[in-house]
Design a protein that fits this description.
hydrolase; Iron-chelate-transporting ATPase; 65 residues; single chain; 28% helix; two-stranded antiparallel sheet; 3 helices; hydrolase activity; EC 3.6.3.34; alpha+beta
């Protein structure tokens, strides 16, 4: 996700096959969206103008293979 944030102008966030958010990286990649999508606690810090995700716990649920 950090790489996607660095190279993308726009992102689309999906949850259960539905669009949760779309738009500029700064509006899509938020701690609240990461919690909703992946069930992770994270802080986002600005790294040279790009959000950098710092997580505090692993994903609690694993997506089906």
């Amino acid at each position: 996700m950090n790489h996607a944030a660095r190279i993308s102008d726009q992102l689309i966030a999906l949850k259960d096959g539905h669009v949760l958010a779309h738009g500029p990286v700064s509006t899509v990649m938020t701690a609240a969206n990461l919690k909703t999508i992946f069930n992770i606690d994270a802080t986002l810090v600005d790294y040279h103008g790009t959000p950098l995700i710092l997580t505090y716990n692993g994903c609690q649920e694993v997506a089906p293979a």
